[in-house]
Structures are given as C-alpha cells and as structure tokens.
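To: structure desk
From: M.T.
Subject: fold request, one chain
Message: Could you run this one when you get a chance? Sequence is below, nothing fancy, just the single chain.
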Amino acid sequence: MQARAMTDLDAVRDADAAQTAAPGEAAWADPRPLAGLRYQVRALRELIARPLTPYYLILGITALLLGLGLVMVLSTGSIRDLSSGYSPYSDFVKQLVGVLIGIPLTWVAARSSPRLFRAAAYPVLAISVIGLGLTLIHGVSHQSHGATRWIEIGPFGFQPSELAKLALVLWGADLMARKEQFGLLRDWRHMLFPLMPVTGVLAMLVMAGDDLGTTCVIVIIFLALLWVAGAPGRVFTLMLILMALVLLLLMVTSPYRLDRLTSFLNPQASPTSQTYQGNNGLIALGSGGLFGSGLGAGGAKWGYVPEDWSDYIFAIIGEELGLVGTLCVTALYGALAYAGLRVARRAEDTFSRLAASTITIWIVMQAVVNIGAVIGVLPITGIPLPLVSEGLSSVLVTMVALGILMSFARREPGAREALAARGPSVGEHVLSLLGRGK
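Reply: Done. Structure tokens follow.
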C-alpha cells in the first residue's frame, strides 16, 4: 500500500515537471509531432513517385487551365462583343467549341502510340508549310491588325503557325531519334542539318505573316531539341547567340516592333504609344490586390487594356482574382513543367524523351514569355497564354500536344501495370457498350 502511494506521488511529480518545463524542451522530448510530419512527407513522396502521377497531373492541370480560360474569355470577350454589336457570348461560344473539339482529339492522342506520332510527323509538317504558304495569298488569308496569320474555314479562322509548332516538335524529335539510332549525333553538323534549315523556313514563313511571337516560340523549340539531344556546349551557345541576334534584327527592322522594344526599355516615354498597353496592364494587375475585385467585376477590360482577351488576359486575371489567382496560375504551369520533364526523364525511347521535353519547354516557356511581358520584365511579343487566352487554333494545338504528353506518361515504367490494375476507364466502358450494341 505504501509502495503504491509512492508510485502515484512520483507520477504527479512527473506531470508537474512536464507542465513547468519550457515549451521547446517539451516538444523536443516528445518526438510524436515530428514523426507525424515525417510520415506525411514520406506519404507525399510515395504518392508523387507513383507511375501515373504525371498523367493525372497533366490531365488535371489541362482541365483547370481550360476552365479558367473559358471563364476569363467570357469575362473579357463579352465586352468586345457588345462594343462590336454582337452577342455578348460570341467569343465564349467560339472558345467553347474549340475546347469541345479538342477534348476528343486529346483523348485520342493520349491513347495513341509513339509510332503513330512519328508516322504523322512528316504529313503534319507538310500541312503546316502549305498552310503558312496559303496565308501569303491575297483573298485566301484573313488580315487583322496588319498581319496575315489566319485562314478562314467557315465561321472560324485557323492559324497555321500554331500547327507549325507541333509539326516542328514531332518532326524534329523523329529526325533526332533516327540520327541517334545510327550514331550520327556524335557529329554536331548532323544535329544542325537539316533541322536548322527547316526551322529557318518555318520561321521565315511565319514572319512573312508578321508574327514575331510565334517565331520566338519556334526558335525556343529548335533550341530545346538541340539541348535535349545533347548538343555540345559551344554549339548550343553559338546557336543561342545567333538566334537572339536574328530576333533582335527582326525587331529593329520594323518600326512597329522597334516601338515595342523601345517602350519596354523606357516604359514612361509616351502614354499614347506602345507603352499604353504595358502601363495599363500593370495598373490592372496591381489593382486586384490580394484577392481581386471578383470575376467579371474588373474595369480594365472596358477599353483600357488592349488585347485583354488574348495577349494580356493575365492582367485581367490579376485584377479580378488578385495575387492569389496569379500565383495559382503560375503554380499550375510550374507543376506542368515538373510533370512533363519527369515524363521525359522516364521515357523508354529517344523519340518520346525528345518530344516530351520539347512539348513541355514549348508550353511552359510560352507561358513564361506571356506572363513576363504582362509584368514588364520582357518585351511584348504578342503570344497567347496557353489554354487560357482566346484563340481556337492555339487551344486545339496545345490540347493535342498535351494529349501526346499524356500518351508518353501512360507508357513510363510501371504505368501499364497501374492502368491494368485500375480497370477500364469510363470512355472504354462507353466504347465497349457501343460495340455490343452493334
């Protein structure tokens, strides 16, 4: 009895000592919170390391950006439609039609094999060259803001320069894969020929339509192919300097593009020149504060920010969704970069590795250039924000490119086993039911 009383007294003393101990000492003495955090980090790493994680990341990011794009096109395009005397839903309906057409194309691309993409590389390249040539024919092409970039197809306009991006990715990846198969990439001259002349032809055809932004993206794709293929450092640096000089020459030889460059270097020069778009875009971006004014409640889209539905839609996102919205959009492109480069790193063949890397660099760098122009750290080039800006051609081609990236993600090591364990998808169930109905 006396021993039991002494034990209870010791327990009370230990409890009092624990209560009077310093908070840091108590946390250090109890390892359970730290162990729980380690367990959560370990569980997150295991989730990220799963074979199908990049596939679901790309699929989810694509869906989120498309949804945001439809909402923002409705918010910005309705103002332009009303001022032009059209229905306020005209631009939104066109964008929605593009997304609805792109969904089955993305689904087919995600379930196709790299062999099909390689077979389609040369036909897609030929179609893009023919399309770019047609934009130079008066009466066939459609002119807007002094540029001839579109071909009218019924009520819609198609931009062949967007298809040229995907064509260069597929053709260049197939070309490099064939050269590596025969051991030709050890010579840097085989890396540049015929990749560099074909890139030059595409760039000249695009520039003939006065589209410097797409020309910059084509140059980025060319440099990405060289980098992923393992071009020597001196060759890659030389090509980087050469491409930069060519783009600078194209900018300074045109009064309109030179005005854009000088307005970037001196944004307070003249409020009526090219600085108007940049300055008002920054005002709209900063006026949103932390959480923004709310969807549809922004005032900059009422004629204060030119091209707010396309090149400068990120400024309206900042005004209506605030800093939180812009950071979320930026994080989505960052997650896309992670997922795409992981797919490329785990690719089992050279073509998939080259195509996955280049598609990822193309889409992410296009977003970086667009956002950089809006926040004033890069010159305005006039390229859209992928999947968000209005543009039927841009949305369709980008969705197909992401579908190709999903196809590579479904073929990384362990993905087939994970798909087999998951069972048939909803689309496969529907197809099987249609087949039984027949």
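Reply (cont.): The two ends are 86 Å apart (CA to CA). Let me know if you need anything else for the meeting.
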